[in-house]
Amino acid sequence: MSTAGGLHTAFERGDALDCTAIQIFTSSPRQWRGRELSDDDVERFHSAWSDSNCEVCLAHDIYLTRLGTRDKTILGKSRRAFANELGTCHRLGLQFLVIHPVVDNDPDEHAVLDRVADSLNEIFDRVEDGGTRVLLETTAGQGANVGYRFEQLARIVVGVENASRLGICLDTCHVFAAGYDISTAAGCKKTLAEFDAILGLENLRVLHLNDSVKPLGSRVDRHEHIGQGEIGGTGFKTIMRDRRFASVAKVIETPKDDGMDEQNLTRLKQLAGKR
Ligand SMILES: [Zn+2]
Fold this sequence. Notes:
Layout: H1 9-16, E1 21-24, H2 39-50, E2 56-60, H3 72-92, E3 96-99, H4 109-126, E4 133-137, H5 150-159, E5 166-171, H6 172-177, H7 185-198, E6 204-209, E7 211-212, E8 223-224, H8 232-240, E9 249-252, H9 260-271
Parallel strand pairs: 1-2, 2-3, 3-4, 4-5, 5-6, 6-9
Antiparallel strand pairs: 7-8
Helix pairs in contact: 3-4, 4-5
The structure holds zinc ion (ZN).
Zinc ion (ZN) is lined by residues 137, 171, 208, 253.
């Protein structure tokens, strides 16, 4: 959700679209420097939230963070920035902070994943638990991205001492591009059974609902409007009607074309059988 005009303005926009969950960036996602929030900003944010129908508000981490990199300078910068971001989320009272956990050119995949776990251990030591759960997002496996197999995320979780501060965010476009076929009811069932066996469905806290421009297994991350891509209506219908997800927060990250947020949300409600 756009926060142009201040973080608190996201709630008005969310209410206009009848949202019960919104996702924001607390600062510009392509800059290292996080936003300095005054006590007034935080106060304004809390009061806008309490006036809104929105129940869940989560943040997406900036795009620069590399918690698994071999580059010591970038690693240090990433850890500092992520610790700050987590602190900001605590001040704002956000339930979740979503991170794309691993982007690196290191051919030793296990080393990358273990460094992410070490980073999280260090950050959790430094930043007291303020209630914001860090969610590892499934990736599409594009370029040097790891984190596109459930097993890879599980390796990070196992390496984190305080795993109760962690959870998983499943992005439908990413898992599909990574090769999990969720375009059919049978495929969804199989994928979720795999997720449950490896990561535990109880750890799934947020769904990013995006259709995919690119085909199954393409490993290319391009979001499409709901029902207009390679996943299609059946996949989303199956997910929207799965009772296990009734209390899982769902957000869309579909292209920001004119009026399309409203159409995508309406489409999801129709597929859920609510309209
Ligand atoms: Zn996503």
